[in-house]
Amino acid sequence: MLGKLQKRFVLINMCLVSAVLLVTFASLIISSANRLESDSYHSLEEDYARIYSYDQSGLSQDTTQLDEGIDPLDNPKKTPFDKQSSFRSFFVTLDSDGNIISTNDMNNALTEDAAQKAVTAALSQDKTNGVLNDLSLRYMVKLNENDEPVIGFIDITFEKTFISQQILNYSLIGVGSLICFFFISLLLSHIAIKPIAKAWKQQQQFVADASHELKTPITVMLANTSILLSGKKLKDDERLKWIHNIDLESKHMKKLVEDLLFLARVDSIEKEKFHSKINLNDITYESALPFEAVMFESGKQLEIDIAPEIHINGDPIQIKQLVSILLDNAQKYAYENSKVTIQLRKENNKAILSVKNLCEPIAQEDLPYIFDRFYRIDKARTRDKKSYGLGLAIAKEIVEVHNGKIFISSTNKSGTTFTISLPLV
Questions:
Q1: What's the pTM value of the predicted model, to 2 decimals?
Q2: Measured at the alpha carbon of residue 139, what is the angle toward residues 135 and 141, in degrees to the nearest 5?
Q3: Pairing of strands 339-347, 405-411
């Protein structure tokens, strides 16, 4: 499944990039073509005005009939056609029947046959301007002062060559870009898929662990039920023993299901949806106070250090659950006759809640996974049937729902400390 997702990611990226490159390059080519077309028509207009202004000065239209020694290109006005010019033009004057009266070729390279072909092709289109692709010419029809049609033609060989070269260049650039982006997309897809693959693996592990944890109490209950229903004569104390086992496992399973449902709800609810301003110091004290008796019974001591007037946006029920989880976890694994400390203070616009106990330090390689669901460090900690490895996972989810962060440190000297940072209001 992840492989298909990665392929789809690459395919979508390639399609999007291809579309962007196609639109960009097409826009550039069309823009260049329109600019060249506009320039060629503008050049024709200028040439027409320049050439036929000589008629008003008494000069002949036909360059072959110009007085010897007089060349219209010697006009002091700058001609647009020098040796580097991309445009070459000529003009043909027609009579009312469409016959050629005269030609005016600024480059003196026009043959009568070429002029006739150009005129015939232009007249066949019956338009005032257009393109003759077969002859690589663009034309424009105007009327001179005698109301005679004059057709101006301009060579578009350079224009066609330029556009063709642009298409080739952009195609090569596009292909090269797509090849480069293909490998970039592979790398990006690999990076993007990593958290998804991790989440997928965690989900599969979560389902397997949940199934295993649910299977154990169900198996025990079925075994005890089978004994009770076997028909054997049992003493009252024996019968109560099996019933007690069923009751105990039912409660354990109920707690597990509640924890799973809580995690499912936390994953789906919107952050801060049901949050309001709460007094964190009061809630923390109320949640910690019942643990004094629990600590005393287990031969441990609870020290409470809570600063006043600390307010946050949150859910009081979830905050109480958070404090209970941390204190219960600290009480379970603290050394005999040791002290568990819960502290609440303000620091840099944050409420800092910490729970510290002296216990066997957690290995550094285990610390990154301590908040994973169903994660338990060693067999010693799994002997307690009340622990399913969900408490710290729930604590982390509660902290994240409240836009906070949770940290853990564990050393031989200072013990294990859970520190929570929550934004103040």
A1: 0.52
A2: 145
A3: unpaired
